[in-house]
User: What shape does this take?
Amino acid sequence: MTYVVTESCIRCKYTDCVDVCPVDCFREGPNFLVIDPDECIDCTLCVAECPVEAIYAEDDVPTDQQPFIALNAELAKTWKPIVQRKDPLPDAEEWAARKGKLPELDR
Assistant: This one.
C-alpha cells in the first residue's frame, strides 16, 4: 500500500509533508505534489502534516478521489523530487477549501 495526494493539494502545494518524509517520495509539479508509489514506504508521517488533509492511504482514498491514485503514479514518473519544504503557493489559503479543482491542475 502507498499514500496518495488528492485534490485538496491542487493550487495550494503546502510542503509540510516533504519535511517529514524519510525517503523523499514526493514529486513537485507547478501547483500540486504527488507521491511516488514506488518510493513510498507507508510510514504515515505525511498524513498528519498536511494542513488541507490531502493525503490518504491508498485503501482509504475517498470514492470521488480514486482517479488520484493513477494520477500520482503517472506524474511521479516525470516530475522532479522535492526534498525541502517551500512556501505554499501565494493564494493557497484561498484555494484550500475549494472542491472540484482537478481542472486547475497544471502538468
Notes: DSSP finds four helices and five strands in the chain. The domain at 3-81 is CATH 3.30.70.20 (Alpha-Beta Plaits).
